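Before a computer can learn anything about folding, someone has to put a protein's shape into writing. The outcome of that step, for a single protein, is printed below:
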Amino acid sequence: MKSIDLAVVSSDSRFLQRATDVARVFGFEYETFESVDVFFEKGEAFKGVTCIILDCGKIEKSNEAAGMTQVACQMAADSYIIIVMNSKLRPEDARIIKASGASLVMMENEFYASSKLEFVTSQVIRSAYIPVKNVDLVPGTEVDFPLFHLMPVNKKFLKVAKPGVIIREDFLQKYQDVGEFYLRRQDLAKWVEYSHGFEADDSQSLLRKCRLRFLQLNQSFLELALMISDQSSAASFALGKEMYGTCEAFATELLDSLTHVQNPWVVINSSAVGDFGSLERAPAIAAYAGLLSSLSKTGDPKEVMIGALLADVGYLELSPSTSAKIRENRVQDMHDEEKMEYSKHPIYSLNQCLSRKLPFSEAIKSMILQSHERADQKGFPNKINSDKIVEEAMLIRLCWELDNAAQIRLGEERRDINAVKNEIAGDYLSSMGSYSVGFMIKMQPIILKPDELEEKTLGKVRIH
C-alpha cells in the first residue's frame, strides 16, 4: 500500500483542473475521485492521504456538506480536509461544516481566483515536515515522536527513529554529515516539550532555544495568516487579538534569543524553509528585520518584526498566475493586469489585517503599506516621495532581498550567509534609487562587518 499527498473529490472538470494543476506544480502525488462514495470505496487502497479537497460547491444546504465531510473524516481521520463550499452559503453554514470535522472551509470564489489553495496545500503537504538540527538531540534521551531523513535523490522522507527510541551516539554520528532530521509539523509541541527538558546556559542549549523559538514563531504565524484570510467566517476581534498576541510573544522571545548568540544570521538562515515569494518566508524575513533593527537602532525591533510578518499576507489574495510568477522569481514576465494586481498586494495585506481588527500600531500600518516602496518612486503601491518612506519599511524590504538571496531550497546546499550579506551590501543596497542615501550609509557597515558589531552589540555564544 502506498501513501498519497492529495486526494481530490469532485466530478467537475474545472474543479479537478484547478486542484491537479496545483498538485503538478508542487510535485504532489495525487489521485482524483468523482464522489465521496467512490473515495470511500477506493481510498482503502492507500496507506494514508495527507490532504483531501472535497468539492461541495454545488451543494446549497450546509447539512449535506456536513454529511459529506463526516464520511471523509471516517475514511481518513488523520487527513487535513479542505471543504470548498458554495459562495452563497452563510458564515453559520461554514461553522456547521467545520464542526463536522473540516480542517478548513474555503469559499468557491477564493478556491478559483486566489492563491490560498497553493498556500494551504504547500503547508499541509510539502511543509508538513520541519527541519531540526541533529545537535539538538541529546544522546541517551528518549523521544516520543518519529524522526525522518530527507532522501537526497527522490526527496522522500524516510523514518529513521520511532517514538520511544533512545537516541544513541552512533545514530547521531551516522547522520552527522546530513546535519538535520525532520519532524512532522503536528509533533512540534512534543519537540518543544523535549527541548525544554535540556535548558541551560551552555552554548548548545542557547542555540537550541533560539531555533525552537523560530519554529514556534513560524507555526503561530501560519495559523494567524490562515485566520486573517478566512472568508468563511465573520471577523472575530477576540480571536484575532489572541492569535496576534501569541505571534507577538514568540517574535519577542525569538529576538531575545537571537541577542544571546554571536552569529544569529546563521541561525535564521539554517532554520527557515519555504519558496521565494511564498508567505511562509515571512518568519525568516521578520527575524532578519528584527535583528537588523536592533543592531542599527532603527525603530522598535518588535514592531519591525510584526510589520515584516504581515507585509505580504496579501499574497493570498493574488490570482494563481500572479503568485506563480512571484514564486518562480519571474515578476518581469507579468502582463499588465498581473503587475497591477501585484503592486496592490501591500494594500491587500493592510486591509486584511484591519478587517480582522488586529491590535497593531500606526507605525506597523506604515511599515506594511510602504514595505515595497523605493526612494526613486519606482516602488509600489503609492510611489511616495523618499522622505515619506519610514526607515523601518526600507529595512523590511532590504531583509526581503536578503532572504531571497540566502534562503535554503529543500534538498539543496546552503549558501554562506556572510557571502550573501556582502552581495546585498554591494548589489542591492547600493542600487541607484532603491534606498535613500542616509539609509545606505546607516546599513552598509552593519551588513558588511557583522561579526565585529555583533560581538559588541549582541551576545557571547559563537556558532561552531
The mean pLDDT is 87. Residues 203-229 form the longest helix (27 residues). The chain has three domains: 2-113, 129-185, 205-457.
